[in-house]
C-alpha cells in the first residue's frame, strides 16, 4: 500500500475562502435579534464553521475520504445559503448582504467541485 498523501489545507484556496465566509457570517449574525440566538443564529454559525472545518479534517485522509469530507463541506454551504435566504426573508439581513454572501458561496462551491474532480 502506498503512502498516504496529505493536503495542506492552510494553503488551500477553498479552505481560505471558507474561512472568509465564516468571518462574513459572524459579522452578519451579530445584528440578529436575541431571540434567534438558539435558532437561526445557531444553525447559521454551525453550518458556516462546518465548511472550512470539514476541509481541514478531510485533508488528513486519503483522496477518497477527502472527497467525502468535501461533499460534507459543500452540503454545509448549500445549507448556509438556504438559511441566509430565510434570514433575508425575515429582514435580518438585506438583499445586498445576501447577494454578496451568495456570490462568495457560489464561488466556493464551484472551486470545491473543480478541486474534487481533480482528486
UniProtKB/TrEMBL annotation:
SUPFAM superfamilies named in the record: IVS-encoded protein-like
Residues of the signal peptide: none
A Pfam family this chain is assigned to: 23S_rRNA_IVP
InterPro entries: 23S_rRNA-intervening_sequence, 23S_rRNA_IVS_sf
CDD domains: 23S_rRNA_IVP_like (cd16377)
Domain of life where this protein originates: Bacteria
Protein name in the entry: 23Sr RNA protein
Amino acid at each position: 500500500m502506498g503512502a498516504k498523501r496529505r493536503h495542506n489545507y492552510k494553503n488551500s484556496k477553498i479552505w481560505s475562502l471558507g474561512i472568509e465566509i465564516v468571518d462574513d457570517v459572524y459579522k452578519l449574525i451579530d445584528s440578529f435579534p436575541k431571540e434567534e440566538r438558539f435558532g437561526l443564529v445557531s444553525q447559521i454559525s454551525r453550518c458556516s464553521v462546518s465548511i472550512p472545518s470539514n476541509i481541514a479534517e478531510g485533508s488528513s485522509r486519503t483522496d477518497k475520504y477527502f472527497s467525502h469530507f468535501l461533499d460534507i463541506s459543500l452540503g454545509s454551504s448549500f445549507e448556509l445559503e438556504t438559511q441566509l435566504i430565510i434570514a433575508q426573508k425575515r429582514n435580518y439581513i438585506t438583499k445586498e448582504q445576501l447577494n454578496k454572501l451568495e456570490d462568495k458561496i457560489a464561488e466556493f462551491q464551484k472551486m470545491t467541485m473543480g478541486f474534487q474532480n481533480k482528486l
